[in-house]
Design a protein that fits this description.
Strand content: 15-25%
Largest sheet: 5 strands, mixed
Order of helices and strands: HEEHEEEHHEEHHEEEEHEHEEEHEEEHE
Low-confidence stretches: 8-14, 37-79
Number of strands: 19
Helix content: 25-40%
Strand order of the largest sheet: 8-9-17-18-19
């Protein structure tokens, strides 16, 4: 499919508006052809409807169809990172420098992200961190290590959403059981992402207990509360909030029943995760344990110690990642291998940094495999050559150099 025809298809399927003149354009474009032709071929300030002036970067696609690449949305626009680095080369700029000048920042409106305001962003700190981790200034663009081998460095950025805003739904049920322990029922499936652990951590923090006191039952569509699914980086952000709301409400009910048992008002008690304590009045300093509360809930009680809650979010704060790779190339044979890959991730505030780190490492390894060794080829008769894992090479730890992942936390205003 040629580029012009592909643009027409995308224009029909996913129309959007040119931010300069307001006419309808294809989803791969940032401006219409007429506006793009009138804009400079390199950095300049332009007034956009409903927004302040911003710095944009432009390049043309072989002079045939103007392709506008706007990095103000956090990542390069329609043509991807190959054009981002090509643009930097034409402007005689360092790839990091051109991105420092054009990246999205906290408070910016992101036209390519449904016009959402960027409520939290540490992309600038991620860029600085990765540049330091890879020792970019010492290695860019390449260095020869022998007559036949050289090492090259390159970098890129990525952006994802935290679920689909106004669409994704997460739910959870929390119940106080015998002996003062909890059961949590969720509709999100732990597919190796660690969501069972992370959601238990969120509940445990609110209820001031150990994660060992919370038994998590994963997705069973017959009995689990509804969840849109474990995809789109949504579980911690969307389902996690449902768990927090659930735990807060359950905590409130525990305090209410504890106060009733102590013969005082709810406003006079506190809950420390193990017992409800009366802080004032005639029964000051008296307490009742969580186990006693759970037992009392089984007889003559009208306060349910089981809560189900649901959450959806009108916004989807995008996580960002910056990565840089050092690749060793044999200049005679073309054989190449990844020597080092350094990344810095802004995924908000990691609830469990260790799980977040191995998730990032796994994604990076998949990307390296797709780039370096995984391929699908067919014979003239349509026979697949890579018909087993002997031919389809998935990288292992033995094939990869050092992968280093760090985090820069960002925070949304409450």
């Amino acid at each position: 499919m040629n580029e012009k025809f592909k643009r027409k298809i995308l224009h029909l399927l996913f129309p959007t508006k040119c931010p300069v003149c307001g006419c309808f354009i294809g989803s791969m474009d940032r401006f219409c052809i007429n506006c793009a032709e009138n804009l400079h071929r390199y950095n300049g300030n332009f007034n956009i409807k409903g927004a302040e002036s911003f710095t944009a970067s432009f390049i043309y696609d072989d002079g045939i169809i103007p392709a506008v690449m706007l990095m103000k949305d956090g990542i390069c626009g329609n043509a991807g990172y190959a054009l981002g680095n090509e643009l930097a080369d034409r402007l005689h700029m360092d790839p990091f420098e051109i991105r420092f000048k054009n990246i999205v920042k906290e408070g910016d409106v992101m036209p390519a992200y449904y016009g959402q305001v960027n409520t939290s962003c540490a992309l600038d700190r991620c860029l600085a961190k990765v540049k330091e981790m890879i020792k970019w200034d010492e290695k860019y663009p390449m260095r020869k290590i022998s007559d036949t081998k050289a090492r090259f460095v390159g970098m890129g950025m990525a952006m994802q959403g935290s679920g689909i805003s106004g669409v994704d739904v997460g739910s959870a049920t929390l119940k106080l059981n015998d002996e003062g322990v909890y059961t949590m029922n969720i509709g999100a499936a732990d597919m190796g992402t660690g969501c069972d652990t992370i959601l238990a951590q969120i509940a445990a923090e609110v209820l001031e207990c150990s994660t060992d006191d919370i038994s998590v039952f994963g997705a069973d569509t017959d009995i689990s509360p509804y969840d849109s699914g474990s995809y789109a980086s949504s579980t911690t952000y969307v389902t996690g909030k449902a768990v927090e709301k659930c735990a807060l409400e359950l905590r409130d009910r525990i305090e209410k029943l504890g106060a009733k048992m102590l013969g005082c008002e709810k406003c006079d008690v506190t809950f420390d995760g193990k017992k409800v304590i009366c802080e004032s009045g005639e029964n000051k300093d008296k307490c009742v344990t969580l186990a006693d509360i759970s037992t009392a809930s089984m007889c003559g009680n009208d306060i349910a110690l089981s809560v189900t809650n649901t959450h959806t979010s009108p916004i989807s704060p995008p996580p960002f990642m910056v990565g840089a790779a050092e690749v060793e190339v044999d200049l005679l044979t073309g054989e190449s291998r990844v020597v080092e890959y350094d990344a810095c991730v802004d995924c908000g505030t990691p609830v469990n940094p260790n799980l977040a780190r191995v998730q990032a490492e796994g994604g990076i390894l998949q990307g390296i495999g797709m780039t370096m060794s995984e391929n699908i080829t067919y014979s003239d008769k349509g026979k697949l050559y890579e018909n087993s894992f002997l031919q389809y090479k998935i990288p292992s730890r033995m094939d990869i150099g050092h992968i280093n992942v760090e985090f820069e936390s960002s925070y949304e205003n409450a």
